[in-house]
UniProtKB/TrEMBL annotation:
Species in which this protein is naturally found: Phytophthora nicotianae
Annotated keywords: ATP-binding, Membrane, Nucleotide-binding, Transmembrane, Transmembrane helix, Transport
Location, primary (coarse class): membrane
Top-rank taxon: Eukaryota
Transmembrane segment boundaries: 396-416, 428-449, 469-495, 507-530, 536-555, 567-587, 645-666
GO molecular function terms attached to this record: ABC-type transporter activity; ATP binding; ATP hydrolysis activity
Stated name of the protein: ABC transporter domain-containing protein
SUPFAM superfamilies assigned to the protein according to its UniProt record, in alphabetical order: P-loop containing nucleoside triphosphate hydrolases
Subcellular location: Membrane
Lineage: Eukaryota, Sar, Stramenopiles, Oomycota, Peronosporomycetes
Length: 671
């Protein structure tokens, strides 16, 4: 109880969540007033001319149009049949405007936006998506648009400023100067009022703050940006979006917003269940156009005074919360015969909408990604290294457990006699358990971190932000110092504590233990990238490691493994580092002693542990040295140390290659 009290009183593990990481030149508790500087006698006014001008836009204004869009998915009840979720949708969105996509819950607004944004990974799409009147390629859509998902996904160890800088440098073209990219970052921070939290780490921030991250694309897609927010926060978010609309095209899905939020939209595309258009057009001031349109429909109850027009509109078509009846009017057919549809058809036929215009550029990109390879490497690798440095719960836990394990093994084996039959078997078992605990601890620890970061990787890959190879390089390099440091802490305490001797063997023991931990970490990353979830990766990983552990060569020992299972012993990656560790300690003997049958004693016994005669050996074992027993019964030979080092490094390379292939070709984000 006392220890629990101390932990609750003095320990806090929230850092570095939502903390300021900016460097300060003074202490936070320095509140002394600065002395007023002395003024000159000259009292003449000094006029300072400040240049004032608009920031240069780092994007090309783009008009988005979609013509006769259809989308089918397999019917879950009858896979041979197709369900049509979108039926001939037409519409457009122009720069400087915010277009709302609304519908009955589940009628297809998010599906429509995903189709337009090129984010769908399944199903069949028909129709045209155009940018500035030119039919858009998949690359053009990904390069010129930004997509903010309903649940924000970011690398949580970055600050807001770092996240914006990362996006600015990797999403904007390499031809744009660094100063202009930094200007874009500062513009976003000022535009969205992020000055006070710009240097706070994203992890632990409120939902409202998380919603305020933005980039510099020509087109921004927002999936329910006000979801989960109260009315005030939703209004603040949409005010920020409206400030950022200048020159940009913003398309936003939203579900039953407040009237204050709804008034901020410029135009609306309303869908009904089945994926058909109920309304498309300008909303007008305070949604006057929309209100007049619906009030002119026979059977529609006029908008009550003070009532939210968004809620009223959805109730009219039977999509309000708790609405089960709704008006029986065919709103789709009514819209087809309305002036708004005629205006839509006329606008769609204009230059720059569905017809190329000589005044508007075609969105053509010569490269798959905006930034060059060096910029990608710099920002992605640096972010990964920063993430590891700031995720103290992950790394400090490993260091702490290394100390605990080393001390625990030391206390148990502090006076062990390894030159006896029971002592030698216990010693080999101790090394086996030490290697196993350190390796499996690393494997299980890396899964949550890798799976959580994978979500941000999927989002950034969908926008062609960077090459998966640089993400792979960052994850590879970030782990190395922590694996080697945790194993160093363990070895420095463990090796002398349990009675092992020799500086060179200790260094080699540390190196092979580090490589063993690194191998398990990289195998964990491979499973995290290749399998659909953290839980599945953990289960499959435990299953695979259980097989590897069973055939490591300790229990059962190498000589006792049935011939039919020898191949598992041969391919078990964990066998090789264990063999090196055991051979370094128990099989190190340059010259074996000789048995004198007359005196019934060994002669010319060396000082190394491996040269010592094994005491109390069973009759069926006979006279044997520690080295001979280790090599014959466990199959862990000193002469194979160099080869096994190479095999371990080879296994690490194989796991990294498999991890890279999983990153490149496996995508568990289904839309």
């Amino acid at each position: 109880m006392f220890l629990t009290f101390l932990a609750l009183e003095f320990l806090r593990y929230e850092a570095p969540e939502n903390v300021d990481v900016s460097e300060k030149m003074v202490e936070d508790d320095s509140y002394m007033l600065v002395k007023t500087p002395k003024s000159k006698d000259d009292k003449s006014d000094v006029i300072v001319e400040l240049p004032v001008g608009e920031r240069e836009k780092n994007f090309t204004p783009v008009t988005v149009a979609f013509q006769d869009l259809h989308y089918w998915v397999p019917d879950p009840h009858n896979p041979k049949e197709q369900l049509e979720l979108l039926k001939g949708i037409n519409g457009f969105a122009v720069p400087g405007s915010i277009t709302a996509l609304m519908d009955r819950r589940g009628a297809g607004k998010t599906t429509l936006m995903d189709v337009i944004a090129g984010r769908k990974t399944g199903g069949k799409i028909a129709g045209k998506i155009l940018l500035n009147g030119y039919e858009a390629s998949d690359l053009a859509i990904r390069r010129s648009t930004g997509y903010c998902e309903q649940m924000d996904v970011h690398s949580e160890a970055s600050t807001f400023r770092e996240a914006l800088t990362f996006s600015s440098f990797l999403r904007q073209d390499a031809s744009i100067s660094d100063s202009r990219k930094f200007d874009s970052v500062n513009e976003c921070i000022e535009l969205l009022g992020l000055e006070d939290i710009a240097d706070q780490i994203i992890r632990g921030s409120s939902v409202e703050q998380m919603k305020q991250l933005a980039a510099q694309p020509s087109v921004i897609f927002l999936d329910e940006p006000t979801s989960g927010l109260d009315a005030r926060s939703a209004k603040l978010i949409m005010d920020g979006v409206r400030k950022g609309r200048l020159g940009r095209t913003i398309i936003c899905t939203i579900h039953q917003p407040s009237s204050e939020v709804f008034y901020l939209f410029d135009s609306l595309l309303l869908l009904k269940r089945g994926g058909e258009t109920v309304f498309f057009g300008d909303l007008g001031k305070n949604c006057r156009n929309l209100i007049d349109y619906f009030e002119n429909i026979p059977g529609v109850v006029p908008l009550p005074k003070g009532y939210n027009p968004a809620t009223w509109m959805l109730e009219c078509i039977g999509a309000g919360v708790g609405n089960t009846a709704g008006n029986q009017t065919d709103f789709v057919e009514y819209f087809k015969n309305s002036p708004y549809n005629e205006q839509l058809v006329a606008n769609m036929a204009k230059e720059g909408i569905t017809i190329p215009s000589p005044d508007l550029p075609e969105m053509v990109f010569g490269k798959k990604r905006a930034a060059d390879s060096m910029t990608q490497m710099k920002f992605v690798v640096r972010r990964y290294i920063q993430m590891y440095w700031r995720t103290s719960a992950y790394n400090l836990t490993r260091m702490f457990l290394a100390v605990i394990l080393a001390v625990l093994f030391g206390l148990i084996f502090v006076s062990a006699d390894y030159a006896s039959y029971s002592g030698l078997n216990s010693g080999v078992g101790m090394v086996f358990i030490a290697a196993l605990f350190n390796s499996m601890m690393a494997f299980q620890s890396v899964l949550p971190l890798s799976c959580s970061e994978r979500a941000s990787f999927y989002r950034e890959r969908a926008s062609q932000t960077y090459n998966a190879f640089w993400y792979f390089v960052g994850s590879t390099l970030a782990e190395i110092p922590y694996c080697f440091m945790s194993s160093l802490i363990f070895t420095v305490i463990f090796y002398p504590f349990v009675g092992f001797q020799g500086f060179v063997p200790a260094v080699l023991f540390w190196l092979i233990l580090s490589l063993s931990i690194l191998m398990q970490v990289y195998m964990g990353m491979m499973f995290a990238y290749a399998l659909p979830s953290e839980e599945v990766a953990a289960i499959i990983g435990v299953l695979v490691n259980s097989v590897f552990i069973l055939f490591m060569g300790f229990s059962p020992p190498a000589y006792a493994i049935p011939s039919g299972y020898k191949w598992l012993y041969t391919i078990s990656p964990m066998k090789f580092p264990l063999s090196v560790m055991v051979a370094l300690v128990f099989a190190d003997c340059d010259e074996l002693p000789t048995w004198n049958a007359t005196t019934q004693m060994y002669e010319n016994v060396g000082s190394n542990l491996g040269c010592q005669p094994m005491a109390n050996s069973p009759a069926d074992v006979g006279h044997i040295t520690v080295k001979e027993y280790t090599e014959e019964y466990f199959g862990m030979e000193h002469d194979t140390i160099a080869r096994n080092f190479g095999v371990v490094i080879g296994c690490i390379v194989v796991f990294r290659i498999l991890g890279l292939l999983a990153l490149r070709f496996v995508n568990h984000q289904k839309r």
